Every structure is written in structure tokens, then in C-alpha cells.
Amino acid sequence: MKSTKPTRTRFAPSPTGYVHLGSVRTALYNYLFAKQHDGTYILRIEDTDQTRKVDGAVENLISVMSQLGMPHDEGPYRDGSNGPYFQSKRLQLYANKVKQLLDSGHAYYCFCAPERLTRLREEQQAQNLPQGYDKHCRDLSPETVQANLKDGKDFVIRLKVPQDKKIVFTDLVRGQLEFDSNLIDDQILIKSDGFPTYHFANVVDDHDMDISHVIRGEEWVTSTPKHILLYQAFGWETPSFAHLPLILNPDRSKLSKRQGDVAVEDFLKAEFCEETLINFLALLGWNPGSDREFFNLEELVSEFSLQKVSKSGAVFDREKLNWMNSQYHKKYLPEQRFLELVKPYANIDKLKSWSSSVLDKVLLTLRNQIDKPEDIKELLSFFLSRPTVDTLRGQECSDILKIESNNRLFRFIVSQLQGLDSLSSDGLRSITRSAQKDLGIKGKSLFMPLRVALTGATSGPEVFVFAEGLGKQECLERLLLAHKVHQDITQESE
RNA sequence: GCUCCCAUCAUCUAGCGGCCUAGGAUGUCGCCCUUUCACGGCGAACACAGGGGUUCGAAUCCCCUUGGGAGUACCA
User: Fold this and answer.
1) What is the DSSP string of A98-141?
2) Cβ of A447 near strand B (distance < 7 A)
3) Which residues 28-47 on A are within 7 A of strand B at the CB atom?
């Protein structure tokens, strides 16, 4: 019973311009499943709707997917032996296949005008009847069909859905599903413009490309029986199916543009890194069976399983996404990767003279204060600009600066500093230590004045590393300024 | 309307008959740590939709009700 066929999955989006988050998750699960089984992950472009074509959409899609770290193994620009991978370039193939169905009596020509169909639907709707084609052309005589064709009448080709049949299949996430063929419409296979419909092209291509597992969104469950009927009409083996739960808006409707961003590009352009998005999306509808929440792509490949995919839809929770993103920036990203993400935002003139190792060190000490890369900018520029007298005289700082021992403290630090060739974080640390020992100043009245003098703020990251970045001269000047403000404040209050 | 699917904290979820006085995470609120801000640690509040069965025993199995969702196109 166990299939020995190689695992081949596919991601088959229609190129509508941007990449929907739901698409990314579908693609991700397909990718993970394929990789886990040493299989092949295929990208196929479903562009049979000529009216919805968007220029550049395919290129954008491919670049986004590779940016996310899951490029396709087979597909556009990466030909396997099953191309072409654009449905619009496979028209001849579909034509041959319908012919087959027409000849075997599984499909028929339908000459009904769209207006008739619309009217039919309206009537059915009014009477609360199930909607569907009334099979008007299903049993047209061959002569009539020939005559109509000869007259050049517009036509579509429909599937002749068998009556009174139960269609049963096992969905890998939902279990056994059952449908009554009498409720299934005689599906259009070829549109009057000669293009195949999704249903037809999809089945033909999946078979043609040897797809072993069809993993797609839940919106496709109800059309799966149609697809199965098609496989049967051709006498083909059906692939396995797995339908993924929908990703939902906060109001529990299908995730849509109306209620906020749904394009991955937008998230990528904003503050979210690829790692966060992949990790977060993976966990929307799937769980590892443990409490673990952080996974990189590689880890997902080994952990993923369709059995652990949940059946119910999942609300896209931006709060948790934000949290996960900040966790990635604070600690889960490798240091080099973090630096790479953050550096474009640290492109500040004043930093040009800093040695890159010191800059890296400073960026790294700022790391746990960051939720997203651009936060670094504000954080840095704040410390980079020398505190102004106004700042130092502000309530927050002056409370610290008016401490009496500051006089001795600043004098001490300045003189020690002057004796140094250059300032290192350890150098300043030991100066502080001796200030504590020699002057007997400690705790808040030791560290806070130093912090205020150097940064003009009462809170922030580790001052020592930062001081190294500033350099000896700048530190001296900041200390002298703070010292002066201290003296001024003290005098004024006397 | 019809068909199909789904149903545990506000949200993501664990749970596949006894380990459940239901676990984790986000968010919220406390406390601790930190001479700052964070990070971090600890804790609190918060859920098995309702009703029937089955069983010695049900969040877990069955049925009904209710609620939600998807599909119902010459769109995918």
C-alpha cells in the first residue's frame, strides 16, 4: 500500500502581483514536506486567467521566495524535465487532453450562452435550490454538435460528471471526506477563449509533473472531488491530498487585504526578518508537539509533519509576530546576521571613524534593547550626540549631577583618563573601580553621574563599551562639560 | 439556500479515555533581579460552546443543537 514514488510537491500560485502570507505558508509546508522526504519542490505558475495577468509578478514571486530561503527545485528559470512551468505555455497539452476526454465520452461541448447561465443561476437562487448547470448540452447529438461547431458558435467544454456516485478520499489532515456526485456541477474544462480552467489545468499538470502530494489551502476541499473525477476519467492515479487550515483576520474571516497587510513583501520591507516570518508562519496551523517555539528553516524541515497540522483556521496575531521578531533580533539571530541587518541603520557619519570591531561591540550591547533593526538608529544617534547643557540641566540629569561627590569624582576620572593613551572599556571600568576604592564613592552616585555625563541620560546600555566607541577625547570633553554643569548647579543653589 | 469543514483561555496551541483540580506561548497585571532602561526570572487572572448518550471513568468516542468558516464563476 505504501507508495514508493518519489515525493514531489508543488506550489502553484497565480501571479497576482504580490505574495500573500497564506501563499507563503502553503509554499512553506510544500517545501518542508518535499525536503523532509528528499523530494522535489516545484513552482508552477497558474496563469490561465488572462484578465488577471500582472507584469513582473512572477519575477517578484521568485525573488521573494528565494529571499525567504526556499527557492524551487523545478519551475520557471529552473527547468526540470516537466516544463514548461507556465500554464499559459501548456495550451497545446491541454487541448490534446480534452480531446482524449471528448473521445472517451467523459466531456462534452456546451453551447449555452453566458446569459442563459446567469438566468439559470438566478432562478435557482430565488427558489433556494442548489446552484449548478442544468446539463442542457450534455446529451446533444453528434450532428447538432458538429453543426454548431461548423457555424462557429462559441462553446466551452464540460466534464460529464457521473450520476449517483460517492466520491470518497482521505485527506492527510482531515481524514476521510465524502461527496455526492449529484451535487457536483458539470465543471467547465476549457473556457470559450480556449484556455483551460484552473480545475482542468491543475489536474493535467499535477499528473504530468508527477506530483505525489497536493498540499494546498482549505478553500480547495470542495473542488477536490471534481479533480478526483477528472483523474478517474483519465484513468490516472490520484495524488495524496492535504488541505491546510485558513489563515484568518481577527474577525475570523479569511485573511484579506482589507484588514491590514497581507503581502510578505510589506512585512519584509518593514521590520520583520525572514527568519521571523518563516518561523511564525510555520507555527500558524502546525505545532511541533512540544513547547518549543523557535525553529530555523532547517530545523523545520526535520520537525515538520502533516499529522500535526491543525484542522481549524488560525488568526494571524500581529502582537505575537512582533514579539517573535523582537526575540529574533535580541537573541535568536546569529551575531553576524544581526549585525548585517542592523548596520544599514547604523550608517551615521559620526560612526565613520569608529573601528568596526568597536562598532560591532557597541551594536551588540545595544542588541537587547532592540525590537527591530531600525531601532538601532535612534538608540545610536541619541548617544552619539554630545549632551547639551540644557539636557544636563534638565530635571532627570540635574538630580544626578547635583550629587556632592561629583566634584571629586569627575576630577578623578578626568585625570586618570588623561593619563591613558587610549580608552578601552576595560580601562574605564578599572578607573571606576579605583574611584570606588580611593574616593569611597559607590553605587548610584558612582555610576549614574558617569552615565549622565557620557550619555545625557539616566538609562541605557552598558556605558563602558559605549565609551570605548566614543574615544578618549570625546569622553573627556563630555566629562568636563558635566563637571562644569555640576559646579554651576551647586553654586546656584547656594 | 445547498454542500463540505471546523469548535480548549482574548490570540496561537498541547491534549489522540484515566497522568487534567486542562499544560505552554503571546498579550494584560503584579513581584523579583538589575545602582538605569531593557533582557531575564517568578507569579496572577483567563478556556474544554450547550445538551444528550457510550463507559467504572470523557476535553478526548457517538448524536443533536448552537456558533464559526469555506465552497457554490467561462477566478484561481
Assistant:
1) HHHHHHTTSEEEE---HHHHHHHHHHHHHTTPPP----TTTT--
2) yes
3) 46
